[in-house]
Each structure stands twice: as structure tokens, then as C-alpha cells.
Write a structure and sequence with these properties.
The protein contains six helices and twelve strands. By secondary structure, the protein is an alpha/beta fold. The longest helix is centred in the last third of the chain and has 10 residues. The radius of gyration is 17 Å and the shape is globular.
């Protein structure tokens, strides 16, 4: 099993970790298959399960709507996605930071749901993974809270790069989370080193990384 961030084969599958009951129910995958893995090269912590397109579609059907919340509360009483459906308070900080590199005329938000958390939203095209791919290239490609969800983040980064205009940038945002061994929607836990490996950037490049609230940002040219 290769590392989803750096493609290293120096990975270890541990004898602990499992899928959350809700996730196992929606995907039809045995919860015990969700073993925890670590990469000996970049340190990424990830789930052994890699979703198929069909499993991912079942997991995210109606994501964050009322029916989704009701179904999830069967397994996790008190769960509510309401806080996830509010715009992030620091979008203007992101825009200020990005403008240090360029003022994008065109923006592609990959996996951005309704686009409300995309910087420069008034200029953005939103592409949900699994939908028909957009045409053209863009000054700014946004991957905000997406890479921790997908089965093949390296492939998605290659796709993101293919949409860049010359001199464009990719904005990546991932959560910095406490170590967990019950895997919900997130099947990767990135840190500074593993995110740098995914972006194919030397670690020194990540001096551009900035803390904003509960997340970190990385910029890749």
C-alpha cells in the first residue's frame, strides 16, 4: 500500500483503527477494515480503506443536509453539521494573503460544495468531484478541506496543476487534527511534512505556510 501523499512504499499498517459506524453503514465497508496506517517517509497518518467512486458517492449523498444529519444522528446522537454550513470567518485573510502573489481574475474551487468558502467567490467556478470537468485554465485553484477526504490526493493534485495558468497558484487548506483512530469522512491526517510532500515542495518552501484559525495554508506554484 503506497502512501497517498508521497507514494512511498515505506508504510506500516497497524493492528488498530476502524471506520466510524455511520461511515461503514453508508459505504457498506466492514468497519474493521479501516486500519490505521503511517508513512515512514513523510509521516502521513491515513486509513487503509481507499474509497471507490461508488462508495464515496454513497458516503457523501446529501452531505450536510437535514436528511444526512438525521441519518447520522442514529449513530452519533447530537450530531449536527450546522457549524459546517456557515461561511468561514477568515476568507478575507486568505484573499489578502493570496494577493501577495497575484490578484486572480479566474478561480477554480475544486470540491467546494456550494462555493461559499472559496476566496474570491464572485470570480469562482465550483467543480464538485465526480461531476463533468470544467473547461479552461485558471489563475487560482482552490482545494480547501478536500484533500483529507479523497482516496487519491496525489491524483487530485496532478489534476489541480493541469488547470493552472502560467504563474498561477494552488491554494490548499487542510485541518490540523488530533490523532484519531476512528475514521469518519477524513481518511488522511496531514501535518507540515506530509503536506509538503504532497505538494512536491521541499520543506523549506513551507516557510510560506501560515496559521489561520484551526487550519494551515500552503501555497504551490
Amino acid at each position: 500500500m503506497n502512501c497517498p501523499a508521497c507514494d512511498s512504499t515505506a508504510t506500516t499498517v497497524h493492528d488498530f483503527g476502524h471506520l466510524a459506524d455511520f461511515v461503514a453503514f453508508r459505504t457498506g465497508v466492514d468497519a474493521d477494515l479501516g486500519r490505521t496506517c503511517t508513512c515512514g517517509s513523510c509521516g502521513l497518518r491515513f486509513c487503509a480503506v481507499r474509497w471507490t467512486d461508488d462508495q464515496a458517492a454513497r458516503l457523501y449523498a446529501g452531505y450536510r443536509d437535514a436528511q444526512y444529519d438525521q441519518e447520522r444522528r442514529r449513530f452519533e446522537p447530537g450530531y449536527s453539521s450546522g457549524h459546517l454550513n456557515a461561511p468561514r470567518e477568515y476568507l478575507s485573510d486568505i484573499e489578502t494573503w493570496v494577493r501577495e502573489y497575484l490578484d486572480p481574475a479566474t478561480v477554480l474551487d475544486i470540491g467546494g460544495n456550494d462555493g461559499m468558502n472559496c476566496p474570491f467567490a464572485d470570480r469562482a467556478t465550483v467543480w464538485e468531484i465526480g461531476q463533468p470537468e470544467p473547461a479552461g485554465t485558471y489563475d487560482l485553484v482552490v482545494l480547501a478541506h478536500v484533500l483529507e477526504h479523497v482516496a487519491a490526493p496525489l491524483d487530485l493534485m496532478r489534476t489541480a496543476r493541469s488547470y493552472l495558468n502560467p504563474g498561477g497558484i494552488i491554494y490548499v487548506e487542510v485541518p490540523i487534527e488530533p490523532v484519531m483512530d476512528v475514521w469518519h469522512e477524513h481518511v488522511q491526517q496531514f501535518d507540515r511534512l506530509s503536506l509538503a510532500a504532497l505538494l512536491h515542495q521541499p520543506l523549506a518552501m513551507q516557510e510560506r505556510m501560515t496559521s489561520v484559525g484551526p487550519v494551515r495554508m500552503a501555497l504551490a506554484r
